[in-house]
Specification:
This protein is an alpha+beta fold. The strands form nine sheets. An eight-stranded mixed beta sheet has the order 31-32-34-33-35-36-37-38, with helices on both faces. Strands 3-4-5-6 form a four-stranded antiparallel beta sheet. A hairpin with a 5-residue loop joins strand 31 (419-427) and strand 32. Helix 2 (64-76) crosses helix 12. It starts with 16 loop residues before the first strand and ends with a helix.
């Protein structure tokens, strides 16, 4: 690839340094952060990013046929006219549907009693002419006459919130241009609660809008003063309460407003306590609370709305059962749990008995799906595994029998018997047992000669389930194995698994990933240099660290929107997300130990003069989560420092944000580029 390419772009250096805790930090590419951000207009910055994009295009151009082939494979596995299973909510059945060739779905409903289909939201029409389009909230009023909906057309995660009259299909009000998150309707369908973001993209306040009034006069329900906390709104399942939640990555606090009287003074359920989390649902005159106040794996408690701070234990915390969520229905308290790293759905009767839904495979991913009604005839669940396409079930509340409503169709054909899946355990260097889920084609060699694609995330307590991916088949059908390392930092094995990979324990995450790779090598799944690795955002940070520490293991690295300039970002309290991230990573401004720890692994700060594997790095100009200059600075330092001739590509989406391009096929094309990069670097 490199032989026919012109020289790669060279980002100039400009002397810049600062001192913290007695240490001088040199940052010669600091200029890539536009001083006017979030307005990126500095021509020197934009010129460099365009040069990198041109270099990316030139480097990938010879592989255009392969990219096109993989893209067409992926596209052929997508049901062009796919639709969701209609779900009842009140007097209507609701669903979404794609038309053949459509990038975006249309949202529909029809009366349960019979009648014509009604088009609620035509996403293709709304997205026409836009480089980016993503719908945020879609909420139907209790009387079924209105729809609150929001959309972002830049990728900056600032959504315009509107009210639509469903009888005419016309938007009748624009409530706010800077919302983010959900919407909650009043019981009378005459008001909505919503959140707004400030200039730092922080959802900092909840407002109440009375329909027909000037949005500038909307009532303030709650405003959060802590720069690290973010505000969200929602409704309890019985729709008796509007919830106003605030919190950061480790602490939460909830207020309730009667849905029938949304201008009433919010009721504080319980004041915040650092490192205590809780969430609330409502049923049968009681509040049902999920909290980690007495056990790391959470417990369930009940409270009287008249005295919400007094919690009576209903389900005790368990070392074995990790409770991840609750939903209060008319007949049951549904508890989402994880046992030995596998998802479980537990239905608890209000008299105290409980039963567990049985799923058909030994390794899988399962979750409650869209269940809008308080007293549904059946519970809607979703299920998949590494070899089983996404399946939608209805679960009978009495027998727990599962009725299959839909199995993800792969139009080009899919035969699950051609693939095998395993869940292996690798011993990390400190003795921890790290699970790894693997899928591979039948006949895959386990003699070390095979090629392996290894993925992980490992942060924020976000588990990566062993679920199905049709796009992944483009690697499997070329003889590759695909593995997910369930490393610490995620909560795959419980909340303590997450705690063992955050803040001062962060190195465990990086060690787990490298040790998982070594364990798979020892088990014959691959060999050093035959492993491609991928992660995004905090998982991109992981990619940067292990590229520095264990470059010889990797045949190629794909780092999507990578959080790699960790030290500089965590030292900049003016950046949008920094204050809220200190509980996750540590505060290097006030804490020298946190400064030293972050400095020890921050990928940008630890680039060294050594051989690095081929690397593909992506970013988004409008990304408020991982700002564009993080991947740009990292690529610039790598180019200037590494000693090899291996290809290094940087692609910055100039009209997108953290999630890359919108539209189902645009996203597939980016995945096809990544797979083509890996395949051409590891032939």
């Amino acid at each position: 690839m490199t032989k026919t390419l012109p020289p790669p772009p060279v980002a100039t250096t400009k002397p810049y340094s600062y001192e913290r805790h007695g240490v001088t930090i040199d940052d010669p590419w600091a200029w890539l952060k536009d001083p006017a951000y979030p307005d990126v207009s500095d021509e020197a910055v934009l010129s460099y990013l365009r040069e990198e994009n041109s270099y990316f295009e030139a480097a990938m151009a010879p592989h255009g046929p392969l990219i096109d082939t993989i893209f067409e494979e992926m596209k052929a596995r997508v049901k062009q006219d796919d639709a969701s299973v209609p779900q009842k909510d009140g007097d209507y059945l609701y669903w979404w549907a794609y038309e053949t060739g459509g990038q975006y779905p249309k949202h529909w409903r029809r009366p349960v009693a019979g009648g014509a289909d009604e088009l609620l939201l035509d996403e293709p029409a709304e997205a026409a002419g836009k480089d980016y389009f993503r719908v945020g909230a879609v909420a139907i009023s209790p009387d079924g006459k209105l729809m609150a909906w929001s959309a972002d057309d830049t990728g900056a995660e600032r959504y315009v919130l509107r009210i639509r009259d469903l009888a005419t299909g016309q938007d009748i009000e624009t409530v706010s241009p800077v919302t983010n998150g959900g919407v909650a309707w009043s019981a009378g369908s005459d008001a909505i609660a919503y959140t707004e973001v400030n200039d730092n993209w922080r959802s900092y306040r909840a407002l109440l809008h009375r329909l027909g009034t000037d949005p500038n006069t909307d009532s303030l329900l709650y405003e959060e003063a802590d720069e690290g906390f973010r505000v969200a709104v929602g409704s309890t399942r019985d729709r008796q309460w509007i919830e106003i939640a605030t919190g950061d990555n480790q602490t939460s606090e909830v207020r309730l407003v009667p849905a029938a009287d949304p201008q009433a003074e919010p009721i504080l359920v319980s004041p915040r306590h650092v490192k205590r989390q809780y969430s609330v649902d409502s049923a049968h005159g009681s509040l049902w609370i999920l909290t980690n106040d007495t056990h790391v794996n959470f417990r369930v408690a009940r409270a009287d709305p008249a005295d919400p701070g007094i919690w009576h234990e209903v389900v005790a915390g368990s070392d074995h059962v990790y409770l991840t969520g609750i939903a209060a229905f008319d007949r049951h308290l549904m508890m989402a749990a994880r046992i030995d790293g596998l998802d479980q759905i537990i239905l608890r009767d209000w008299d105290g008995g409980s039963r567990q839904v049985a799923f058909p495979e030994a390794s899988y991913s399962a979750a409650a799906s869209n269940n809008p009604e308080f007293a549904p005839a059946a519970y809607r669940l979703t299920y998949s595994s590494m070899v089983t396409p996404l399946t939608v079930f209805d679960c009978d509340p009495d027998t727990l029998a599962l009725t299959t409503l839909k199995v993800q169709e792969v139009p080009s054909g899919y035969d699950g018997s051609r693939y095998a899946t395993e869940r292996v355990t690798v011993r990390a260097r400190d003795g921890a047992h790290v699970p790894v889920s693997i899928v591979y084609p039948i006949g895959f060699p386990k003699d070390g000669s095979g090629k392996l694609f290894l993925y992980a995330y490992g942060a924020y307590g976000h588990a990566i389930p062993p679920s199905f991916s049709a796009a992944r088949l483009s690697l499997l059908d070329r003889g590759w194995a695909f593995a997910i390392a369930h490393i610490r930092g995620g909560d795959d094995l419980g909340y303590d698994w997450y705690l063992q990979g955050k803040a001062e324990a962060r190195w465990n995450t990086f060690h787990d990933f490298a040790d998982a790779a070594k364990g798979l090598i020892a088990a014959g799944f691959s060999s050093a240099g035959n492993i491609a690795i991928n992660g995004g955002s905090a998982g991109g940070e992981l990619m940067g660290v292990v590229a520095n520490t264990d470059p010889e293991l990797w045949g190629a690295v794909v780092a999507d929107v990578p959080f790699v300039d960790v030290l500089n970002t965590m030292l900049d309290a003016e950046l949008p997300l920094t204050p809220g991230e200190w509980p996750e990573w540590g505060n290097p401004i006030t804490d020298k130990a946190a400064f030293d720890l972050i400095r020890s692994y921050s990928p940008y700060d630890n680039v060294a003069a050594k051989t690095y594997p081929p690397m593909l790095i992506t970013g988004g100009l409008n990304d408020p989560r991982v700002t564009y200059w993080e991947p740009a600075k990292w690529a610039a330092r790598l180019r200037a420092t590494k000693t090899d001739d291996n290809i290094l590509l940087l692609k910055i989406n100039m009209g997108a944000g953290h999630g890359g391009k919108s539209g189902r096929f645009e996203a597939l094309h980016e995945r096809a580029e990544a797979f083509a990069f890996v395949l051409t670097q590891m032939p």
